[in-house]
Amino acid sequence: MRDRVEATPQDRPGRSLSWPWFLVVVIVYAGVIQGLGRIVGVDTSYSESQFPSTASLVRNALVPIGASILFGAGVVTWLGWWRVVPHYRAPVRRWVRWVPISMIAAAVIGMNYPHLADQSVSLVVCLLLLGLFVGVGEELMFRGIGVHVFSRAGFSEGKVALYSSVVFGLVHISNALGEGAQALVQAVVVSTSGYFFYLCLRVGGTLLLPMLVHGLWDTSLISNLVGDSPQASLGMVLVIVLQVVLIIVLIVRRRSVEPASEGLSSPAGTSHPGPDRA
């Protein structure tokens, strides 16, 4: 049985970033969001809503997450990885395509349209921007930088998926600063979502697909939480049920994610980077 072909240094442009240093980058990333949120954010404890007004959504979410996008882009620029980060060629079996398809469908169908119709135009527009910002910012950091860091370190695809998803979930524990112990549950749920977004990356071969899925997914969920009076909907139940179903499906079929040729040689057209020694 042949070993997986390692990439030459020429196939790994830019600087190297070891996974322990990536964890440091992630801590700074979380600090940017939480720190700036505390500096420019507004108090919403008077309301049951997470974002009762346009100003609260802008100052508590758009500004901090926008800053995190700039931070992530700065890291990619410093690493010289703009040729690398947007793409990830690691094929999966055809059935995995249903992960992004079902998530997009559930997000679009599950959007709380009646509740959004009662909100101001400015609040709805900012919600859409928030979905875009979250999709771009978090995917750039975790499925963009993170996946490539763990892959370059020589980990198997299974470990790349696991480690990048766990780190993604752990970052959300920082929300405990404002949300308490429920952030621990959120971290577990987010880790599973991170694995789905990782599969979206592999299905599309481009970071744009998980950015789209992630952005729509969060917009659908947050559509229930904006305005003076948050309002749950059947669509939110649909999104939650789909996540549970995907977890069950992937537990059962996790061993059939990889192409049949995986383990014998690198599939044609793939480019798995070899380990960095940074």
Query: Tally of extended strands?
Result: 0
Distance between the termini: 29 Å
Low-pLDDT runs of 5+ residues are 1-10, 263-271, 273-278
How many H/I helical runs?
10
Oligomer: single chain
Note the beta-strand portion: under 5%
Q: What is the fold's blueprint, element by element?
A:
Elements: H1 19-40, H2 54-79, H3 98-110, H4 113-117, H5 121-152, H6 157-171, H7 176-179, H8 182-204, H9 208-222, H10 234-253
Helix pairs in contact: 1-2, 2-5, 3-9, 3-10, 5-6, 5-8, 5-9, 6-8, 8-9
Describe the structure.
The chain is built from 10 helices and no strands. The chain is mainly alpha-helical. The chain has helices at 19-40, 54-79, 98-110, 113-117, 121-152, 157-171, 176-179, 182-204, 208-222, 234-253. The protein has one domain. The longest helix has 32 residues, at 121-152. The chain starts with 18 loop residues before the first helix and ends in a 25-residue tail after the last helix. Helix 1 (19-40) packs antiparallel against helix 2, helix 5 crosses helix 6 and helix 6 (157-171) runs antiparallel to helix 8.
